[in-house]
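Hi X.,

You mentioned you wanted examples for the new student's onboarding notes, showing what a folding record looks like when two proteins sit in one file. Here is a clean example. The first protein comes first, with its sequence line followed by its structure tokens.
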Amino acid sequence: MIVVAIAGWLLPTLLRARRPAHEAECLAHLKQVGYAVRMYMADNDYRMPPRRDWHNSIRSYVDTPDDEVMRVIPGSRRDPLKCPLDPSPATCSYLYLDRDVLDYTMSRLNDSVTPLAVDEYFHEKATLVYYDGHVDKMPKTQWAYDRLMQWKIRRDLDHPESYAYELIPGTQKSPSFAPPPIERTERYLWPVF
């Protein structure tokens, strides 16, 4: 009885202690995703992976399906497209932001501030990989603000299996002479009209 009580008391502490290791593993997975997208682009005339099937398009860049020893089972714990804290049977945990869905007024942002893929569900902070290859964490409230106010994107609610963002209906995809939706800051490189 005493052993069960001690185990019940220690279990939450042990689980919390493993969380930083899972976050570091998720950062490493997202870095691999960034490399895979860049390799895909180099092999495909610098076109981005298609939004609807992006994770399957880059699968051969994170996996070696012909090698029995190095093969990664999609959706397994070793799969770079899967967050280690994702309990679902899905083969991908991350959401993809294709440059083609960006609002025109945001399309010239430099690679160091443009997110490529995001894990916004499974950690205390949102984990992002950017187009220049670096990974970062930011508070979920800040990411939600950036996503909804600056990027004008949301998860594709009609096709959640796509693991991609879509433009919010009504967002422009062509030039406009309306003022930008947020104030200019030094962080952003705005297009010249």
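Then the second protein repeats the pattern, sequence line and then tokens:
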Amino acid sequence: MQNTPPTSKTPPTDPEADPVQAVQVPQSCLELFLAFNRLALQGFGGVLAVVQREMVERRHWMTRDEFVEEWAVAQIMPGPNVVNLAITFGQRHFGWRGSLATMAGLFAAPLLVVLTLAVLYAQYSSHPEVSQGLRGMGAVAAGLILATGIKLIPALKRNPLGVVLCGVIASVTFVSVALLRLPLVYALFVLGGVSCVLAYRKLNLNPSS
């Protein structure tokens, strides 16, 4: 049995909270479908920046803190991050129908676009202009991800570990994966496990934090 979500939530009273007057919720499965369809059609080269802008800044379906937490959960689950986020978000609001709506939105129109581009790429992939253009798009995607990460840094102010310790863990993760080329699973379970233990201890020592 599912519960119909309220139309909005009370805005946070924390003076450092996100500058959003109220967190909205989707009103129908159709709205979910259209939102995730729009999201997917913008996600060239990576969807993190697009998901954050669409769900936090444009539609106000999540606060910045909620998005950081939900994206972290989506990353540790098997499968594509945005798919995991879409399934859990849709299920929370409309049960299995919501999950189907978000999944359909993610794959319907983008599937047609991908098939069309695949046909075109097969014909023109040998052209140097095409390969150079794709390399340029890769740089743009990296810039979008970096910009989104910077925008989400203020959410760490309310993390129980604090900004400094979060920065240390993020730096160690970057060095391990990007420079030392360690398997991602090591960083996920070792550094992620250490972070969970530290956060758990911090919350137990300071229940009000």
